[in-house]
């Protein structure tokens, strides 16, 4: 396989991986909606209290999305994207294990930080990977994924929560997130110098 063909294949795999991240990021805005009554019963609280599970994510998401995008410009989009993925996956695990509504809400805030990075940096990474007509096509695909994720959230949430319990709507992010993170790591190229400086200083 020639270098050109390999490079072309790599960027489409990157688009697939970045689309998975965007899908999870936006899916978690609406996937929780249908599981709220089950959560209220599980935590022995009223419906008004569990609505904060949605608000904690959406408010935090809106607050940090531009900040994370700026961090990507400063320290490398790939690097901050991967950090965002780790945050999102770890927070999803925290949410699934949450012993109380308070811990779940805290986990949702943390998850929103990761989700905001997945969303904002995916757009920038796709734009940098593709040129010309391919760029328009790639961004169009990503836009379609955004629409599908928002619409399909309640349906997927209903299927998962009814079949496996409300924790499954968070646990499902873990294998998908790990797969997407590995693919992004190997299909996009950027050096790691800036992110080392961000984490370790110097």
Question: How is this structure best described in words?
Answer:
The chain is mainly α. It contains 10 helices and no strands. The longest helix has 33 residues, at 132-164. Mean pLDDT is 89; it is low at 191-200.
SSE pattern, N- to C-terminal: HHHHHHHHHH
Give the biggest beta sheet.
Answer: none
Counting DSSP E segments of at least 2 residues, the number of strands comes to 0
Residue share in helix:
over 70%
Spans of at least 5 consecutive residues whose pLDDT stays below 50 are 191-200
Shape: elongated
Count of helical regions:
10
The pLDDT mean sits at 89
Structural class: mainly alpha
Overview features:
about 200 residues, mainly alpha, about 0% strand, disordered C terminus
Quick synopsis:
The chain has 202 residues and is mostly helical. It is built from ten helices and no strands.
Produce the secondary structure layout.
Layout: H1 3-30, H2 36-42, H3 47-50, H4 52-75, H5 77-97, H6 101-129, H7 132-164, H8 168-171, H9 173-187, H10 193-200
């Amino acid at each position: 396989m020639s270098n050109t063909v390999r490079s072309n294949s790599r960027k489409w795999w990157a688009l697939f991986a970045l689309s998975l991240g965007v899908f999870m990021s936006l899916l978690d805005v609406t996937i929780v909606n249908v599981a709220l009554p089950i959560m209220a019963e599980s935590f022995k609280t009223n419906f008004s209290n569990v609505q904060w599970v949605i608000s904690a994510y959406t408010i935090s998401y809106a607050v940090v999305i531009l900040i994370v995008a700026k961090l990507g410009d400063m320290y490398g989009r790939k690097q901050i994207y991967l950090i965002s993925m780790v945050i999102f996956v770890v927070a999803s695990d925290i949410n699934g294990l949450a012993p109380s509504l308070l811990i779940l809400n805290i986990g949702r805030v943390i998850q929103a930080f990761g989700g905001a990075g997945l969303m904002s940096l995916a757009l920038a990474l796709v734009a940098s990977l593709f040129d010309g007509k391919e760029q328009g096509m790639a961004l169009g695909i990503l836009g379609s994924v955004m629409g599908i994720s928002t619409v399909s959230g309640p349906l997927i949430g209903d299927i998962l929560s009814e079949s496996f319990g409300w924790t499954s709507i968070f646990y499902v992010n873990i294998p998908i997130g790990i797969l997407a993170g590995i693919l992004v790591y190997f299909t996009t190229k950027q050096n790691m110098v800036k992110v080392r400086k961000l984490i370790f200083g110097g």
